[in-house]
Amino acid sequence: MDLSTGSFSSCDELESCHLPLITGLPDDIALFCLARVPRKYHTVLKCVSKGWRDLVCSEEWRVYRQKNNLGESWIYALCRDKSTDQVNFYMLDPSSSRQGSWKSINGLPPRCLKRKGMAFETIGKKLYFLGGCGWSEDATDEVYCYDVAMNAWSEAPSMSTARCYFGCESMDGKIYSIGGYGLETSDPRSWDTYDPRTNSWDSHSDPNIILDIEDSVVMGGKIYIRSRTSTIPPHVYIAVYDPSSGKWQQTDAEMALGWLGPTVVVDDTLYVLDQSLGSKLMMWQKNDSEWVPLCRLSPLLPRPPCQMVAIGRKIFIIGKGLSTVVLDIDNVGNADGVIASSSTPVFSCDDDVICCKCVSI
């Protein structure tokens, strides 16, 4: 009898340890309600209680919002201030009603601040800063991680190979670090893959990986990398990786002719910003193997050099000083029309944009 009483007492203690998210409601109903709070107020939610903070910072929260079409994408930009030769990190909430809502994010690891040739990639709610080198520093294999929900930095497992100025993409929940330059013993025709489930890297090599990678993109479940020689006129090479075969091969020569600028993929269609004579948005028509001009941009905005990122059917073109032009793919005109709808930073910034990524929570 005493054992039975003690057992019930233990159960009662366990139940009392769990505090409901909202008093009087089951936690699944509380999650249903809280998940509908706009992302800009998530910082406030984290201040209510430890339970709310842990929930908002969890992977469960992100997945629940994604499954119920509640996810909101914010843009993160890795930039370089030429006056200080230092890397800066910014964030933009596209839904903000205020013009120029770019905000600086502090806390970049000091070892990253002066590095060049770093890669910048995302998985889930985490952003990864990979590799890089400096004037007095060889290429490194170091990886740092920024958890967007927790607003916290940490050191992630190092790559299998030290790299700088390399291709980097995420696909199927893994990060691919491709080619580039590294230590003298490195194989430039190699790539590493990071799996967050095992928290480890695997190394691979393939003689078909091209050198001098300038850009990369994921399209149709494959990774495309582009390089360009210094010849005049420049000659562009493109290689594609198919995960089903685990091999690289060179691809469409016609595609290479028009891929001469920053890229973005919207609904499995590739768009390129041609900045050779002004700024013109081009679309790759895969079935016809040709590039089609969509529209020209204002000569004033965005200020080149530019990078691009997509949220839904909208393309954000982000230039020097974080000058931002937003294009709706469904409403763009033709190549004879000039379109410019911009969001201009309100703070003083003349940074060059290295790379832009979106994180949806």
Automatic annotation (TrEMBL):
All copies of domain F-box, residue ranges: 25-65
Stored CDD domains: F-box_AtAFR-like (cd22152)
A Pfam family hit: F-box
Keywords assigned: Kelch repeat, Repeat
SMART domains in alphabetical order: FBOX, Kelch
SUPFAM superfamilies: F-box domain, Kelch motif
Domain of life the protein comes from: Eukaryota
Annotated protein name in UniProt: F-box/kelch-repeat protein SKIP4
